[in-house]
Amino acid sequence: MYDYGLLNPVWAGTRAAEQTSDVAFAQAMLDVEAAWCRAQIRFGTAPESIGQAVETACDITSYDLTELAAKTPDGANALIPLLAELRNKVAAQHPEAAGYIHRGATSQDIIDTALMLVAARTGEHIVTDLKTTVGQLGALADQHAETVMIGRSLDQHAQPISFGYRVSQWLEAIATAGQQFETTLTNLPVQWGGAVGTSTWWVDYFKAEQPEHDPMQLVTAQRDMFAEELGLVSASVWHANRMPVTQLAHAAFEVVAAAAKLANDVLTAVQAEHAELAEPNKPGRGGSSAMPHKNNPVLSIRLKNAAQEATGQLTALHTGVISNTAERADGGWHSEWAALRGLLRVTGAVAEILSELTAGLEVFPQAMRRNLDIHGNYLLLGRISQWLAPLVEAHDVVEKGKGKQLVESICQEAIASGDDLAQTLGDRLPDGLVSVKAIEKMLDPSGYMGGAATIVAEVNSRYRKWST
Amino acid sequence: MYDYGLLNPVWAGTRAAEQTSDVAFAQAMLDVEAAWCRAQIRFGTAPESIGQAVETACDITSYDLTELAAKTPDGANALIPLLAELRNKVAAQHPEAAGYIHRGATSQDIIDTALMLVAARTGEHIVTDLKTTVGQLGALADQHAETVMIGRSLDQHAQPISFGYRVSQWLEAIATAGQQFETTLTNLPVQWGGAVGTSTWWVDYFKAEQPEHDPMQLVTAQRDMFAEELGLVSASVWHANRMPVTQLAHAAFEVVAAAAKLANDVLTAVQAEHAELAEPNKPGRGGSSAMPHKNNPVLSIRLKNAAQEATGQLTALHTGVISNTAERADGGWHSEWAALRGLLRVTGAVAEILSELTAGLEVFPQAMRRNLDIHGNYLLLGRISQWLAPLVEAHDVVEKGKGKQLVESICQEAIASGDDLAQTLGDRLPDGLVSVKAIEKMLDPSGYMGGAATIVAEVNSRYRKWST
Amino acid sequence: MYDYGLLNPVWAGTRAAEQTSDVAFAQAMLDVEAAWCRAQIRFGTAPESIGQAVETACDITSYDLTELAAKTPDGANALIPLLAELRNKVAAQHPEAAGYIHRGATSQDIIDTALMLVAARTGEHIVTDLKTTVGQLGALADQHAETVMIGRSLDQHAQPISFGYRVSQWLEAIATAGQQFETTLTNLPVQWGGAVGTSTWWVDYFKAEQPEHDPMQLVTAQRDMFAEELGLVSASVWHANRMPVTQLAHAAFEVVAAAAKLANDVLTAVQAEHAELAEPNKPGRGGSSAMPHKNNPVLSIRLKNAAQEATGQLTALHTGVISNTAERADGGWHSEWAALRGLLRVTGAVAEILSELTAGLEVFPQAMRRNLDIHGNYLLLGRISQWLAPLVEAHDVVEKGKGKQLVESICQEAIASGDDLAQTLGDRLPDGLVSVKAIEKMLDPSGYMGGAATIVAEVNSRYRKWST
Amino acid sequence: MYDYGLLNPVWAGTRAAEQTSDVAFAQAMLDVEAAWCRAQIRFGTAPESIGQAVETACDITSYDLTELAAKTPDGANALIPLLAELRNKVAAQHPEAAGYIHRGATSQDIIDTALMLVAARTGEHIVTDLKTTVGQLGALADQHAETVMIGRSLDQHAQPISFGYRVSQWLEAIATAGQQFETTLTNLPVQWGGAVGTSTWWVDYFKAEQPEHDPMQLVTAQRDMFAEELGLVSASVWHANRMPVTQLAHAAFEVVAAAAKLANDVLTAVQAEHAELAEPNKPGRGGSSAMPHKNNPVLSIRLKNAAQEATGQLTALHTGVISNTAERADGGWHSEWAALRGLLRVTGAVAEILSELTAGLEVFPQAMRRNLDIHGNYLLLGRISQWLAPLVEAHDVVEKGKGKQLVESICQEAIASGDDLAQTLGDRLPDGLVSVKAIEKMLDPSGYMGGAATIVAEVNSRYRKWST
């Protein structure tokens, strides 16, 4: 028993950690073996009588995982010692039943299917959490569709936006990734093929037992039942085609990457100098006894940490996948397991954190407004000159093409002297060209958010159905 | 100026390298700027008269790319100096036209859209090459659906397969990845949003010019024309939502990973000790003057190399994406560019190589058979004992449960003594239990390929339509 | 609670897994806290009386790691809940002693130092195993310094080498990496600095208590004792300078990468078609009941798997390190922990596997010779023409510059016709130019290994002292 | 001619880009071939007369790199077509000289050595720039050794530090990495070994020509001259031992990672809300015509971008290195080239940027002080209670162990009410316990920087000699 999560603040103590634990994976392997027995019973290739003994033996709590781990290196997988023990347990109750266990299967059938099962189980909660998150972000975006703040380009003050608009972009990324992840979940396949993927054992069996039928049709029909038992998709063998693994891994990574963007923005906004957002409070979380003013944004830190871990896990998985060989790889396949599990675990933790963070994120519109004002009217210079330059030229104040220069020089001068910009422009431009009031309106950043609110509404309407 | 591909055997001299070159990217940026002008003309926000000057100026051959590169670091992007030059060129022909260039846009609109355009252009050829490859692999699988060879598990001899079956697994992975890539291509979006993604400039413009309309409806309608001009999808702004980039990158990587599996298998099979396959010959390729017996499998080496490069590029892209912030990231965005281009380039090269390699792969069935026989009848022991043990037990030769042991001990002994296995079994087992002929049939590896041929047919039927 | 290693055949059941377990890491954190108390006692800033209570409480077996893990996310590290519990345990025995625990320290001081302690403890065994490995490889290289086999370039037959020469290259890489790793171990630093690295608490303390001294001299002197207690190096604070972490990680990775090369070569050589090497046998390892002829090279598979995992861990670590910020990073630091632990664990497992694999690697010189002969005399063509061309020209058999062509055409013809090459050359070349015997000598591949044996001796002499 | 750097703001237009260009690499390959000829002349194995023809032909400006690139894929390396052309050029001038070119060498000898030569040439400037940077940082640290600012833990306000202290940590990381990189540069080896690394050609040659000597001693002696000609280290063959490559790559990455930390800190500090630092101004850099208030921190953005790119390049390199096989790898080796070049290029650009950024970084001490004050006296609570609690207990104001609680409650109350904290404490604590003045002194953050200035001095003294 090695790891509890002490070095993994991302997932220590989360539901995802349990759902992807070695215990959960080993139980999934037993579930797969049991499902295969049930499929045989249903298909008439095994007697009903074996059912009870198999089900009873397929409970991971009666196995010693430390011992299984110790035997894992010998065959470079954990199924081999688990299966030996499973056969013993079944045989102890029902000697003949043992022969039906794992019949015609290979380690890879069980391990790959078990990983898909773990994905399906963890994935279900991930999708739920992501839908909750998207719902919460939708409400937040809606609420702040008009809350003005500074938009940042290259992380520098650029133009005003609304906070709701920024939230809508978090939402769109998370929802896009979430939907793709959900789609991937609905396609998770069982693995079934025997030693080299061609179902030799069962083809021989059916040729002998049911010579009147095409043996592969029977193999496929029996596999369909197996898949049905597990709630997975009945698919052609993929021992040597790892696309199902890469697609799942990529879909998971996209969720984590979308969450990281949100976290990065929160981490900037909670800095004391910004103070635009605060993470939800929870007693005992994020404080520091030595530094009582601290409220560490631990949820966002964990999300950021998660994305960094996931990047490494995906690299490991890719490095494995690209060294795939023959009918079963010599190392490449093995590298997928921990990496895929790690990705699912991190993604699950991310979904849990997102759901908590977006439920209680505190927003400080006054601070947003204060920060927006740091550059004062400089922020509006582009807008003002875009608006006034043509008017100035149209009134022949200056010749064509010189309007922008005139307007900008008046503005720069006024701002530098600390004069009221609207008034100065009103004074300096010909009477009747524009009113001071009109200029003041154009200088109001809350009117300079373009389509921010429209985008909020559009994004919300796009994902409203999915999120509920 | 810098790179010709001398350190990049994967893509040096390929069509993909040209389609993703800096020249191609810069031309794509000009194409995007030109398309925006055309969209304005069509939408009635710019006069038709600007068209000619813009089109003429949007030809990259009249720009000095070395100079543009030298100016690139100042704004951390190449669009800024390119745009300055473009405006100069347009103004030289038609002074007023210059004002319509890039109107209401931001660098990110152009760069992101240009990258999507490069993806669309490169992608079209990639899909064509992948379809050709899948077609060729389908024919190869069909032709060798019954060509027996050894299947390998953990890269060790396991059970017989047909070469066609192995090819079917290459095919399935490449076709799955290719179809997903093709789908991604059909969704490539334009980027449009201005400084912070809210189209402030155009909202102001339409409020002033067409106050009777919802300005964002006009913005969207004009964007639709822009997308149409470029053959891309009109989508909501994604400045701060990088899912379109990760999805494209992942789809590309999956193609490369699927190809790597094929390459790894070819690299094993062309070794002199295996000699089961040879790469297509081309004068001047893969030979060595110092070592005349060499025929280096350079196509497969390049595919393997490609997958390793792509793993690094994807890591760089991920590292960038997860540090995305605010309305435009401060470095994370910049890291996507070269990584995405690199992925497209490598994927394009991979598709070209695949198409050539699978067109001319030489297959040596006799060598496959010779290698299969290395372990002789040992390979069939499992099958024989699975078949005979129940018969032996049914005939009360041994008690229940001991059949396998008896059969195996007879076999091991016979093989060790070099005796004919079928004959020995016939002699040692009770008369009438099985005929020597029946045993000989069971010892024929070509009858022990399970559903190999069925799988070949099934996979071929799944992708036949797509590949043609 | 979560992971036993079932998905990690690389390290499940290894000593390294235990030495890097959460238990070991948590014990190391307690060891660091205890060492700090001992340092205070030695330095006179804490009374001796606290010693016993602290030592007693610093035994990880009396802590509930599942509970600690559950509390880890709240502060995004495990030290916070561990410390609270430690203080309780100490206070229960000796109320005043609790105040001396963690005095002036910050979480990062303890966690970073604990990781270095884990590195030192695991590292000691790694170095021992690597020295054993290098010693064993040295003997193997020596034994096979003249055992001829085919050398491979781009994995294709190139020229003869000796197996000992190939071993010498494994040895050199492993020894180079091992020595660098050992050097890194001797420089592992303690971390000491308090909240922001400037030792504010202790500076205040010493200013008040020992105003006559430079407080930082006292801080440093006390830190020296702390380092001495732990067997680590007393170093300037490195909270915000992660070079000690990257150097350690890189040194570990190099060991793993060097091992992967060896594993890749073994995996090729154990294939049935090559059969030049076999992994040491161990009952129960690497066999397959379904496929009795199999002896899976699980040690090499685990080494290959290890390198792929390590590549991912290093990527995660790098992704963390490059997002380092301020006096303590918001996520980047957290990503280092599991990655560094993972690298140490994998490196430890690799060293154990290497030591076992190189102790019992079986070598089959006859198979090496058989494989070498696949291309027959083609392999020697270059040598023969290099040798004879000048002689032929010198004897005016052909004009200058045509010698190579003549020799090669004679050779190609002879080989193609299946004639004896030496005899044919002897017949076709002018009498007295060279003897058939001399040609036969030149055609002997065992005389065509260049400096192979010299390189073996040179490499062995370079590392002999280190390995013993 | 594909890439000018338009997608690579990190290195476009830098000196490093030129030093690592394909032109520079190809010239390095020619330099290696030329050096080998000179070594032969010096060693007496080639006539002096060949020198001129070789030198003349070894000028890359007379080669067509586009053509070489087009031929690169055929042999999967660029040396093959380059060498053919080189031989032609030499032969055109001096027919016999052509035979001495590349004598006994293999592609890998030239390519590996050329990459080391590129590293040496680029590296020299990198070290110079890093020394300049360290010198500049030393001066900056010194100047601001007492400039108080807030220190951040988990990027949140923690305790005061001096800006000089933060700079000292940048300095230490960059100097550590720089020194290690410099050391690596002094060990860059030539590669020399022929087809499979055993110098067969030259061993045969020397056996024939100088039978009285040990041929490998002559091979080594001649190699020493070759190394001397190139300014590299004469080393044992490392075709199959890639540790020299990983060590160089790791050393380069460490420089980039150290720089990224500095960049991340600058990016936070230049935000308008912080405004503690500004990047040096340069006309035309970092501005935005649409947003005149912007001064984009492009140097830091490029440094951050660099680290992300380098992470990907290192992953590619690692993925290649761990798939190393036999005497020359089938793809793994090829993946090293572009990755290593990329790392050197990025590292060179980073060094240039660092040197410019640290020369002109603007520091705003008033803003630092303003930000520090955001949390006001909350920041000092820990310090005050650490100081007063024992005094309060010693004066029996409260019982032992309750001092901290009393002091903290007085403080919290005072701060909450907006009262003067020193005065309130003076009032509420017994007369004579402490003076208000003493409390005020303890509340001065500039006196609460622990050993900041000492650390600055210590770090500066550690690297002063190296940096100049």
UniProtKB/TrEMBL annotation, chains A, B, C, D:
The keyword Lyase applies. Its EC number is 5.5.1.2. The keyword Ligase does not apply. Pfam families: Lyase_1 (PF00206). InterPro entries: Fumarase/histidase_N, Fumarate_lyase_CS, Fumarate_lyase_fam, Fumarate_lyase_N, L-Aspartase-like. It comes from the Bacteria. Keywords: Isomerase, Lyase. GO terms for molecular function: 3-carboxy-cis,cis-muconate cycloisomerase activity. Residues 20-301 form the Fumarate lyase N-terminal domain. Belongs to the class-II fumarase/aspartase family. PANTHER family: ADENYLOSUCCINATE LYASE (PTHR43172), ADENYLOSUCCINATE LYASE C-TERMINAL DOMAIN-CONTAINING PROTEIN (PTHR43172:SF2). This is 3-carboxy-cis,cis-muconate cycloisomerase.
